[in-house]
Amino acid sequence: MGPSQRCAIAMAFALGAAAQAVGEERPPRTFEYLYVDANEGGSSGGHVAIRFGDEVYHYQHEEPGVLRLHRDGDQAFLHLYSALQNRNIRAVRVAVSDETYRILRDGFEERRQIEEAHFDRLASAAEDAALFEQLLAERQARWPGAKSEGLQGLALPAVGFFLPDGGDPIAAGPGWPGLHALRTRIARERGPEFLPARKGELARSLAALEPESAERPPVPVSEERLPAASYGFARRYRDGLVALQALEVLERALPLRAASLRTGEGPDWELSQAERERLGELAGELERRLGELVASSRPDFGVPLLVGMARLFALHASASSGHLFVLDAFSDEDPLLPRAALVRNAALLPLLNSENRAAFLAARAALFESAGGLEEARLADLESTGNRWLELEEGARGERDVRLHPGRLVPARPARRTDLPQIAAADLVLRDALGRVVREKTALEHALLEAFRYDLITRNCVTEIFRTIDRSLAETQDDGRSADRALGGHVGVGFNLNFIPFVSASSVEGRWHVLERQELPSRRRALLHALYQREEAIGVYLREANTLTSTLYHHANDDSFFLFFTDDAAALRPLYGAINLASGVAAASVGLLLSPFDGGKVLSAGARGALFSLPELAFFNIRKGTFEFAAEDHSSHGGETKEMSAW
Fold it and tell me: Are 76 and 407 in contact (CB under 8 A)?
């Protein structure tokens, strides 16, 4: 099969087109079993996942030694593993009935929700313990003559759009007319005393908030049973505080803080008269919804109210100026990509900029071309895509480091406020509650570690996928059909080697109803294929086979030190591995001398380089190098060639 045929098959897979089975009138329902090749890092033994539609489920090893089930969008999964982590992905498409597809997908989703609920209980207990400690410390800090570093306060989500960190009183002023109009609407529809009464009710509820006094019986941790939802003291307290701050912002009609809005230059950010009128209509619809939200019985209405008021400001600013503004949806807590990394990947920046612009223009068109009322999902898409485009543009211009955030951006700028109302609970009550919740947290940590413990052989990313499949089919199929009939055969774990990722993929291919097998190449191999199509093969190979002259790969900060790529050089792998081993040892030796100055960075890279070179001596490849940036379409320089776009 030639490269063009493989690409065509992969593209069909990428677009989710079901293969037509011989003799059937319509395509069967399918899901994909994905084997991700090894690379240095967290999955140096390979990884597996299962894909239903545009969702990918996979188990990951996390601290403190537990195995967690994750659900990712398929494009995000491919971008991470195939592009950034530079791994080949073998995809096996399996034909099943509609009923089996539903059972399996629901089984994985139910398992994920159960896990999330259990670990959310742990997070809630940790939040309670931290809050009780802080409340006690801040009470002590307020004592006359107390030596303290000051009040720590609480980080309140979305409050930062209107208030700064600290506890300074809110300055009086004329206020923003948009919130004056919203306040007038609420007074007209609900009475002039509604807002003051709602604020008073919230303040009294916060002051009277009491932690639970009785020791709660432990809730059993089960992989099969959903625990009760946890709404602990810290979450109730924080939700009440945010709601109170939101009503304060509305009552005083505070304007949006500086730097809360972002915009770009050029025609892409300019608005026609029709678009300005459309934004005015959307602002009116948003104002109506905010008027209803103020009276919501939801305890967590404060965050959506604050974000909604900030969006209202952005819509009014855009409609009045004729220039499109979006909220700054990034957070100061998001990880940073240093400017040095942008310099190392300068050749890729034009393509990434083009992709970001295209995504923004698509979101812009979707917002303005929709004929109905306000769809907040479209507005959120505009914010997310606009922020990503602007963030990378500013980083490429050398203005600052680039903030990173996986998935859709959601505006939630926090502010750490210290002007918080005090609760009436006595110190003794808080100390008792702290002791109780610490005991609960410790017990829950042990129970979760026992229930979801990771083990390299008996409980890893492979074994739990097959156990989830077996459990789903056994529990929901009431007609007696087994996995043999539902999938074509049984791939079990136990006294076999199916716990090894690549072995499991071979077992699936040999036993299930497989329609297609494809390999989605890693980013480097896809780019190499494009170069071989355009240039002389020997020249490409000599240039790209090593890290010193390669135009496709630039050493990433977290990569080990090596000289030769061996994933596409099977025959020469031991020779290249020996050179890599020697160079890794040499780099580690130099790094030992440099460690007082660089914190052991070169030493670590050299030692890992030597370690991952050892398998190459026996014709086995693990390390492939990684990428700090990668275009979603795997395009080569300048976007001239596109290989296997995201699913």
Answer: yes
Domain count, the chain: 3
Domain hosting 59: range is: 3-118+448-522
DSSP assignment string, 109-136: HHHHHHHHHHHHHHHHHHHHHHHHHHHH
Domain boundary among 498, 522, 546: 522
Q: Is residue 360 part of a domain?
A: yes
Burial readout 148-176 (b: 16 or more C-beta within 10 A, e: otherwise): eeebebbebbbbbbbbeeeeeeeeeeebb
Give yes or no: residues 396 and 337 share one domain: yes
Q: In this structure, are 493 and 576 located in the same domain?
A: no
Query: Residue type at 489?
Result: G
> Is 429 part of a structural domain of the chain?
no
Q: Are residues 583 and 602 in the same domain?
A: yes
Query: For residues 378 and 363, what is the distance between their CA atoms, to the nearest angstrom?
Result: 7
* Nearest of 498, 508, 512, 513 to residue 462 by alpha carbon: 498
Mind listing the pLDDT tens digit for each residue in 357-400? 999 999 999 999 887 788 888 999 999 999 999 999 988 887 77
Q: pLDDT, tens digit, for every residue of 602-621?
A: 999 999 999 999 999 999 99
Task: Measure the CA–CA gap between 263 and 391, rounded to whole angstroms.
Answer: 11
Cα 539–545–551 angle (5° rounding)?
75
